[in-house]
Structure prediction request, 200 residues.
Amino acid sequence: MESQLTILLPVAAVWLAAGVLADRLPRLRDARALRRRTGWLLALALAGVALIAAVSVGGLTSAGTAPIDRAAAGLALATGPALVVAVCSVRRIRRLRAGAGAFESAPGTPAPHGLRAAAAHPLVGVPLQVTALATVPAVIAAAGTDLGAEPGITGPAITVGALAVATIGVRHALRHSRLVERAQPTSVTRSARAAGPLHV
Prediction:
């Protein structure tokens, strides 16, 4: 059990750090800081995907009773969102870093609302934070508390997890929508507001 926890803790720590960093990314108002933090986020995302892949492959190639097998079974829930990170989030983070890199030669340049809106896109933060959340049951089980074996806990635990995922998604969607609205040119926004009463 202790060896299994030793395997799972670094995986959970990397995903938790990536989730926290992704949540703070849209708050950055300096383009250079945004590029630097995006580089850190890209490294953490790639490291997290690599760790889950390594544990999963180790579980497949093991005899079936080693701690790596129990760790791989515990991370089965996190495999899906980690795959979304590998397919969607990593690409968006790379594009965001490249966009912020255009302001590298001008220190202190404010980050445009368009870049901040891209940083707040749900496909950047949601998969990272959902993967971090999905590693928690494995760590709890490795620590000695199996939620699935406790009567009356499985249902509420699933409900709490589903509510947490829904909250994460709605929060990112609202923040992204707000920043996209700020990124629109003022003249366009005013024209749309002025023309609003004309539409039936």
Observations:
- The CA atoms of residues 27 and 116 lie 7 Å apart.
- Helices lie at 2-24, 31-61, 67-74, 76-101, 113-119, 122-142, 154-183, 186-195.
- The chain has a mean pLDDT of 85.
- The two ends are 66 Å apart (CA to CA).
